[in-house]
Amino acid sequence: MYAGKDYLSLLNYWSGLTPNAEAVFDGADRRLSYGELCHETEVLQTFLVDKGLRKGDNVLVVLGNTVDFVSLFFAVTRIGAVFIACDTAIEPELVKSRAGFSCPKIAVFSEANELCRAEEFKSVSATLVFSKEGSEPVTENTFFLEDVLAVGKIDASSVSCCEYDATKDPVLIAFTSGSTGNPKGAMLTAENIFRAARNIGYRMHVSSEDVFVVPLPVTHMFGLVVGMLLPLLFGARIVLPKRYSPSLILQLIEKEHATVIYGVPTMFIYELDVQKEKKADISSLKTGMVAGAFCPENLMIRIGDEMGIDVLVGYGSTEAVSISTTLPEDDLRSRTCTVGRVFDGNKVRVVDANNNPVPLGESGELAYKGYGTMLGYYRMPEETDLVIDSEGWLHMGDLASLDERGYITIHGRIKDLIIRGGNNIDPRDLQKIYLDRADVKDVCVVGYGNEKFGEAICVYVVLEDHVESDSEELREYARGKVPKFAVPDKVVVLEKIPELPSGKHDIVSLRQSLEAEQANS
Length: 521
Known about the structure:
single chain; alpha/beta; 3 domains; 9-stranded mixed beta sheet
């Protein structure tokens, strides 16, 4: 494991120690060793410096999962510039908005398209495009990755790591997912992201012999920190498929003898369902992690029974990276009902509406203080002050409780609480009830505006294949299992619940469609 404090030099460390060891594979045809990855990073770093990139500049990156994302991240951050990642799945208008907001010096795209020609990108010093196939330069300052790597220029004066303060200088602006509102850019340091990755690796007992299959988008915190940086810190191997397919993930686990698998709960649901038919050899797996959304107890049990591994549950946020995980040795209840204990060097407490700590076991808002806390929201000081108080506590927006062991139980997002007729309803309570049905694969519970009750309740359900069920029967199923006021007003059966690029359910779009439907009725 790379234990150095100069986090951004870890590729040099592994390139010197194990240059021929494989570092990353795209799941199809491209593999890079640690030596090759370090070399490519230095080529890109030289190119970016030649194009005027300097410490403190912003680089806007619109990419999916690719081997070269790894080298680009280190090339940008080693210069001291700030990496701003945008998923290719987000709307072009949102990308333009972030560009106008952040004024990037360099823009990077997966392909040359109309987005490259947008007004917001006309002032950049250079545009780097990853795919040359079917693309043409859109300006004289457009360059293709293939050409940059073919030239292979490395300037020794450009490739050294800049002087930086790991605790104070931002290396990354990560946008919140926007599942509960407008996304904000959290400014994060090397200490924030690398220390979190290192501590999770310790808890997972990772070594350089491990092989990680990472189906998560590396433009999001779970994928970037736990999926990409963690394996690199430990000199392990990353399998980073360009697209997500449960069949492909199972195939890669078998083919690459993967030992670690990650995912949000929905990914594990899909993979378990496909595995029933595919029956891939996944016996090489030894551990994994589920995070990014609430994981029902029955899904945790299924993962253990059908995949043969006890996965850890992780908890964090864009603003705090990673706060806690369960432990491999935890009992079933701790792994299925809590998100584990906080990492050493961090503190958590549960507070009431007046910011006073509540007794153990009582519910309130979770507050966090530690090395993971963001510097603040980019160019949003007022919004920053709303979540980080005068004592440095970051208010997570989650309802939680602590037990006597320090284990954290998350009861739901404060903003997701449904208040129907003056009664508070936790969507997770309904979600658990419906997921207990053998014919239900996935569930999302949404509150939406209602003139009579303030809010009404809609439960979206995905049924198992070849199963039919009546919406009214599904609605009545909750009666007697929850208080009368918590029985859903409607149940909608879908083939798939809409998702954000992060894999979370897109609650905002579901709520908007419900309210639009109601307004038109």
